[in-house]
Amino acid sequence: MDCVSPILTIATDLFDCTAKRASHIRGLRENLECLREEMELLNLRSEDVKTRVELGKQQQMTPRREVEGWLQDVGEEESEVAAILQEGDGALEKECLGRYCNIRSSYKLGKRVSRKIRRVRELSSRGGDFEVVADMMPRAVVDELPLGRTVGLDSLYEKVSSCLAEDEVGIVGLYGIGGVGKTTLMKKINNGLLETSHDFDMVIWAAVSKQASVKVAQEVIRNKLQIIDSIWQSRSQYEKAIKIFNIMKAKRFLLLLDNVRQRLDLSEIGVPPPNARNRSKVIITTRSMRICNEMEAQRIFKVEPLEREEALTLFRELVGEDTISSHPRIQDLAYIVTERCKGLPSTVVNAGRKLAGMKDVWYWEKVTRKPEDFIKEISGMIRNDEHIAHFYAGKNRLRQAVVDEMPLGYTVGLDWLYERVCSCLTDYKVKIIALYGTGGVGKTTLMKKINNEFLKTSHQFNTVIWVTVSKQASVTAAQEVIRNKLQIPDSMWTSRTEDERATEIFNIMKTKRFVLLLDDVWHRLDLSKIGVPLPEIQNQSKVIITTRIQKICNEMEVQRKFRVDFLTQERALALFLEKVGENTLNSHPDIPQLSEKVAERCKGLPLALITVGRAMAHKNSPHEWDQAIQELEKFPVEISGMEDGLFLVLKLSYDSLRDDITKSCFIYCSFFPKEYEIRNDELIEHWIGEGFFDGKDIYEARRRGHKIIEDLKNACLLEESDGFKECIKMHDVLHDMAQWISQECGNKMNKIWVCESLGLVDAERVTKWKGAERISLWGTNIEKLPETPHCSNLQSLFVRDCIQLKTFPRGFFQFMPLIRVLDLSATHCLTELPDGIERLVELEYINLSMTHVKELPIGMKKLTKLRCLLLDGMPPLIIPPHLISSLSSLQLFTMYDGNAFSEYRTNLLEELESIEPVDELSLSFRSVVALNKLLSSYKLQRCIRRLSLHDCRDLLLLELSSIFLNYLETFVIFNCLQLEEMKINVEKEGSKGFEQSYDIPNPGLIVINNQHFCRLRDVNIWTCPKLLNLTWLIYAAHLQSLNVQFCESMKEVISKEYVTSSTQHASIFTRLTSLLLDGMPRLESIYRGALLFPSLEIISVINCPRLRRLPIDSNSAAKSLKKIEGDLTWWGRLEWEDESVEEIFANYFSSQNLADPIQDPGEVKGKKKLVVEGSTSRAATQLLKRRS
After folding, report:
1. Per-domain residue ranges for the chain?
2. Could you tell me if 117 and 38 are in contact, meaning their C-beta atoms sit under 8 angstroms apart?
3. Is 642 helix (H, G, I), strand (E, B) or coil?
4. Cα(259)–Cα(344) distance, rounded to whole angstroms?
5. What is the distance between the alpha carbons of residues 484 and 492, in angstroms, rounded to a whole number?
6. Could you tell me where the DSSP H helices lie in 414-488?
7. 3-state helix, strand, coil in the chain (%, to 5)
8. Where is 1027: in which H helix or E strand?
9. Pair type for strands 727-729 and 678-679
10. Helix (H) or strand (E) holding 517
């Protein structure tokens, strides 16, 4: 038995050991899965801790070492666990565990897995105990302060610095007059500690100033000491002082107190007294030596003005050596100016800045003749304290600065306009200057630049006053701003009426030369009600206003107005990149190119560039930039800041519009695509169709429409097209804003839907149609439309310029019960109108112009509400009989430029004549029979607005009525090969009705009475080879454009028989802006005499070799002419009144190279003014030299 017991013990131990090892082998699969789960949990906890650490870093905190060590351990364990899991998964995959071939390795692996599970759980438990992962970073011992170049302070700096090493010195005082450099010296001391070794635990800067209190000083020190809120908030001043004291007594500190005006009790703040034991220091700056004594300073230093040579060196450096050496006299005068600055650094600096670049010796001499005035002027650029005022003026009261500097950020693209405005400030004829433009374009920025430049440049103004007027501003508010600037005391202001205050302001300002800057003016401001004297030559004062409304410029009687325009693409990109920042631009190689695309979408509007630029700052992923480009194109309001920072600012202009109709007309412009140039007439016709002018005839509606367009241009919400005056366009950002407003400020995004170049698939998947009120589809890619869209709210539908679209689906109009406007123009492949158009009984406007529709459906008879039917530029069109006469509400009908009336279509004229509401017609004729039918109807003649005659081959004589064609605006005659003469029946109303006369009246009476062709603007006469003259144009007093080509028999435009006196011809062509004559080999005269041409901009004479004299003299087109075009040879042969006239107009000549010039058949060599070798005219010679 004794031998059995040890054996059993050994067996038991052996079994236990074997069982444990077996468990490592048998439980390997479960343990591996457990390790994987525990590691995933640890990783999640690690990510949470990392997030908290990162947030702490963003808040200027530093991670705790314990946390950093834990994160490092987690990282190490993660790699080790990954290796174990990979090894374990491989072992399981081999399925060798049940065999005895690798039991030892399986046991070791299982043991490592068990040990690693315990380790991972331990790390996970530790990670859950971190209540705080980061602590506040200790503040820097010394905070660097902004410091410019210092002059003359080195010696004193060394003396003060030496005091910092003397244990017996606790407080150092620096005193001196204002502007002498005390603060600069103390900043130099502060920043010097960053570069030299020292024993201070902290350096604290506190700007005390006159109004500073113990409380303010405590807050500054508390921030430096990083005292947490929980032991600071709700504490008394005394308790806060104790807390500061308990911290600072354990430290060696340097306290810098700047601009001390009265004794400051350090113990009330909580600052321990500096002494030899704590070796701390306090330095104060003050203007009074008495304060140094009261604060018990052990060392006191007076900051003296600069030495003469130091001041001169500083002054010359600021003025610039180019300026100093530009004239010998300036070098002497520079010395005198420096002397008058009395060595005060601030005065020397500001004097140097004012005179920088000034090379006018006269101005330098003026400054030195009255140096006191000059010093007083620049004293406003520094601190106009009582010491400086007393030093120069003998007064104790602080004076208001001449110019108050305005906060001004980065400016770009304003320099050219700034120079132009500044030039007006020296022009005695200019009293009031206006800057106008779209909201956000930079008007206020430009005026701030003008204001601030007064601080740097020389001027003669006594005061510059800035008043932000704004929409809600009143006379009282403006008076308060001016009162503060003029420092009118309460005793002369309080309890006074508005008129009395105006009188007080006036009596002060009338003695001054002032600049009044009125920013953001929305209505005419009566300066006299404010009390501002009118600027005039005597006082040489100026007023500058900024406004979004151009007419305000006229209402305030400005002498110069400047439009602040959008930035060029290059300058816009520069502004945008500045707001995005270099870090973002360098974060990915694709971003610079993407940034150009984003900037381009802002179309040069500075406010948009700034808003979008700020939104894109820190967007380091190209994907984010791609998304921004798409959002700017489709949903710009989703860009950060666009709604609050941009659209709401621009909306102020919309809100200021006079009435709801004008606002609706503005919003309607966004129904056209971006960058689309909208013809004024086309836009007004749509407004008429929309019912904006219900109850008005077409004449009145057009007048109202043109007035609204002018109002919108005046408000800078629309702008004139670059190429054509009769077109307008809307800036892209304003387009986005208008759509945002139409969508109820973003609340109903599908209310208006404008799509360009929509693809086939997209068009079929349209889901936005259901709630839309207006849909506008444009573009070459649209080939197919939805089958039966449900559009119960739809009022307007544009399908325009869709050149691939050939037909509409059947039933397309089935669910559009409210539609009023249908525009299918320029959809060239469209050959028939869709079925169901007769269901659109609410239609008031249809435009089929430039389509290939072959026939109008008879069902259109049901459209009895139709007011406008446009069929311009179409091929021959079948119109069923009695269809037009069934349109009982029709007011406007156009069939112009293409589908002309022939002798077979006279019945259509009768139908039009039968419609009572018809007001306006635009018609083309190619038949004398049809034309005579028109001319026999007084009603139709009264309605004609555009008239075109082409290919009327039997037309020999054209007689027009001067009264009944009174509504005619555009008249075109083309290819009428037999036409010889045009006559005007001048009807006079008498006792027997209208009596006809062919007498030519006095042209002066034509203009004054305004009764003949008073609306005719454009005349085009082409290919009428037998036509002799156009003398009838004397009746067209308002003619703006005359284009005559290929009239080979024409010798004179206005017959010489008409020229009867020197007083008559002055009234001809007074509104003409463009005159084009081409292909007329016999033309010898435009008019026998000189005309004023006060509006003429362009004269173009091509292939008219016999025209040797233009009807111009030195007074002609004096302010309007821009260009004269013609062949250089023709120009050289022109005859002039004298050489001075030739020289004047030579500056406007632009040579046109002719591919096939017409030669003068009667040209005789040697005739006067012929260009022969050595006999070229003076002007032509100059032009030839320029081209060579």
Report:
1. 4-136, 153-302, 308-383, 438-558, 566-656, 659-747, 749-853, 857-950, 1005-1057+1065-1151
2. yes
3. helix
4. 17
5. 12
6. 415-425, 443-453, 475-486
7. 40, 15, 45
8. none
9. antiparallel
10. strand 514-521
CATH architecture label of 438-558:
3-Layer(aba) Sandwich (3.40)
Assign 3-class secondary structure to 825-854: CCCCCCCCCCCCHHHCCCCCEEECCCCCCC
The torsion defined by the Cα of 712, 717, 723 and 724, in degrees rounded to 10, comes to -10
Q: What is the DSSP string of 529-555?
A: HHTPPPP-TTTT-EEEEEES-HHHHHH
Q: How confident is the model at residue 752 (pLDDT cuts 50, 70, 90)?
A: confident
For 659-747, CATH number?
A: 1.10.10.10
Strand intervals (E) in 733-808: 752-756, 774-778, 796-800
Fold of 749-853: 3.80.10
**Residue 497 burial by Cβ neighbours in a 10 Å radius (0-12, 13-18, 19+):** exposed
Digit-coded pLDDT (tens) for 994-1009:
444 444 444 444 444 4
| Two structure tokens written together for 1020 | 């085009």
* List of residues 6+ apart from 728 with CB closer than 8 A: 669, 677, 678, 680, 683, 709, 712, 713, 718, 719, 720, 721
Looking up tokens 């340097």 gives 254
Strand, coil or helix: 475: helix
Q: Give residues with Cβ within 8 angstroms of 548, minimum separation 6.
A: 436, 437, 438, 439, 443, 522, 652, 653, 656, 715, 716
In whole angstroms, what is the distance from residue 869 CA to residue 854 CA? Answer: 15
Amino acid at 482: I
Q: Is the pLDDT of residue 226 over 60?
A: yes
Closest CA to 514 of 501, 527, 496: 527
How do residues 453-501 score in pLDDT, each as one tens digit?
Answer: 888 887 888 889 988 887 666 788 888 888 888 888 777 787 777 777 8
- In single-letter form, the type of residue at position 559 comes to Q
The kind and range of the H/E element at 381 are none
Q: Are 588 and 619 in contact (CB under 8 A)?
A: no
153-302: CATH topology: Rossmann fold (3.40.50)
